[in-house]
């Protein structure tokens, strides 16, 4: 990848839109970030798209943490941490061995299974966190795996937080701190695999304003979002993302 990719105006417009969606997803609706993954993967070389998007996600994380710093459930984050670390390591191995088509299909299947399980559990349960240690290990390891291989851990963890029936701000605050920690932990893996280089960093520098605008818009929208709409939107965005990855 050259220091700055030679792209047509339409591609730059799409990348700017994807950056805005990154910011909005971090402060309002986590599941829609799958759209950004799709845009980056369609325009940039697969490996560089993952690295470039990771840096923008970290910028979005900073705004989300600032906006919802008082709303995180730290017991939930700490309970998930060991499984997530294992998932990250497995994802790094998988990323080094698998081709792009396998990565997309595996993640798409995982997301659909997680959505189905979450909907089923909400139907039979009156509330509370997902069932014990097994759920923490399952969601945590899948979240670590999917976020490592394609920055697609948001939909998996959204299903976990949704199953826990978190209010909007508790959901967003827990997700903000969770992914801020996870995405920073991914940096050494990504650099070691050559996913981040000077070219991707220059590209990110040009796209950061879009992330900031999206994050501010998302903060405004979240303050006006009803719980029922939020829950349905998270589920819908996750299903659409899974279907795209499979197709």
Number of DSSP helical runs: 10
Give me the strand/helix succession. Answer: HHHHHHHHHH
- List low-confidence stretches: none
Largest sheet: none
Question: What is the helix content?
Answer: over 70%
**What is the CA-atom radius of gyration, in angstroms?**
17 Å
How far do the termini sit from each other? 27 Å
Content of β-strand: under 5%
Number of strands: 0
Query: What is the domain tally?
Result: 1
Basic shape: globular
Structural class: mainly alpha
Pfam families: TauE (PF01925)
Subcellular location: Cell membrane
InterPro entries: TM_pro_TauE-like, TSUP
Keywords: Cell membrane, Membrane, Transmembrane, Transmembrane helix, Transport
Written description of the protein model:
The chain is mainly α and 247 residues long. It has one domain (9-246). It is 81% helix and 0% strand. It has 10 helices and no strands. The protein has helices at residues 9-27, 33-43, 46-67, 74-97, 100-124, 132-150, 153-163, 168-192, 198-222, 227-246. Helix 1 runs antiparallel to helix 2, helix 1 packs across helix 9 (198-222) and helix 5 (100-124) runs antiparallel to helix 6. It is globular and about 50 Å long.
How would the blueprint of this fold be written?
Blueprint: H1 9-27, H2 33-43, H3 46-67, H4 74-97, H5 100-124, H6 132-150, H7 153-163, H8 168-192, H9 198-222, H10 227-246
């Amino acid at each position: 990848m050259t220091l700055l990719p030679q792209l047509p105006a339409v591609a730059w417009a799409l990348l700017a839109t994807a950056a805005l969606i990154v910011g909005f997803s971090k402060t309002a609706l986590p599941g829609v970030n799958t759209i950004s993954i799709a845009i980056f993967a369609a325009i940039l070389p697969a490996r560089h798209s993952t690295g470039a998007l990771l840096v923008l996600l970290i910028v979005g994380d900073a705004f989300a943490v600032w906006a919802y710093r008082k709303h995180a459930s730290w017991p939930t984050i700490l309970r998930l941490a060991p499984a997530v670390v294992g998932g990250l390591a497995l994802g790094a191995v998988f990323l080094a061995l698998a081709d792009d088509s396998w990565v997309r299909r595996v993640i798409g299947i995982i997301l659909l299974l997680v959505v189905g399980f979450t909907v089923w559990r909400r139907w039979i349960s009156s509330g509370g966190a997902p069932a014990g240690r097994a759920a923490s290990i399952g969601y945590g390891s899948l979240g670590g795996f999917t976020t490592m291989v394609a920055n697609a851990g948001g939909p998996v963890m959204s299903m976990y937080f949704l199953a826990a029936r978190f209010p909007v701000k508790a959901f967003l605050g827990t997700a903000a701190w969770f992914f801020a920690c996870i995405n920073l932990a991914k940096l050494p893996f990504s650099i070691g695999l050559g996913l981040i280089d000077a070219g991707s960093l220059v590209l990110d520098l040009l796209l950061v304003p879009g992330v900031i605008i999206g994050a501010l818009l998302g903060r405004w929208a979240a303050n006006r979002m009803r719980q029922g709409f939020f829950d349905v939107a998270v589920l819908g965005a996750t299903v659409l993302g899974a279907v795209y990855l499979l197709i």
